[in-house]
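Morning. Coffee machine broken again, so started the prediction first thing and wrote up yesterday's gels while waiting. Chain of 254 residues, entered below exactly as on the submission form.
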Amino acid sequence: MNHSMPEINTLLKQLRLSHMAEHLAERNRQAIEGKLTYLEFLALLVQDEMLYRDNKKLIVRLKRAGFQGEKTIENFNFDFNPKINRAYLQDLATCRFVAEKSPVLIVGPCGTGKSHIAKAIGRCAIRQGIDVLFTSQSRLFNTLQAAKATHCFDKKMAQLIKIPLLIIDDFGIKPLRTPQDEDFHDLIAERYENASTVVTSNLEFNEWGDAFPNRLLPAATLDRLRHDAYRIVLEGSSYRSSRELKSTKKTGGK
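Came back before lunch.
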């Protein structure tokens, strides 16, 4: 049975292969010029469709993750903080820790690159087809509070528990209040050994307990977070301050 190009395009669209339909004429011309076999021609079309779908999934995952800015391992300024173990960070970028369901804890002063590293690791995970959610501590608790107000707290908590990689930025930047400490404990307890959590904080590890109002919760919560965790400790002055100082000098500011 012979089919014209428009007819094949229509059939492909009915099969929801619109991207393949869009490139059919171009690939057909290449097949004729390159004297490709039928199977080689079909393979080109299928590869086009697969690449398109993979890229579409990548875009959706990036949007759902909630990242702001293009923070990657490639554009991280290692020269600014030469004490960072680059090999250790690149190992984390393989996202082996996600398969291990291990936490990653990143601490250091403001502006030393904690959020950049966390987002960069998250982007590496997304490239590997892993669903990621990036949220600050404040946004996390605001989300949970809103869920309680609309009677969908259990649903929202279940979503947070199941996400393969949850990144919580700026833990302890504000002291937790009740019931925030209880919600945080429940979230960490449910994710423990079931999913990976990345946490960044300006506080040193031995200060994390001070963020909890209830002195009974820190030990149970932090014990789970620290178990088998990968740790990154950043030192030095703020990268943002350095950039602002350079900018001031360039513009002749005082």
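The chain has twelve helices and five strands. Going to sketch it on the whiteboard this afternoon.
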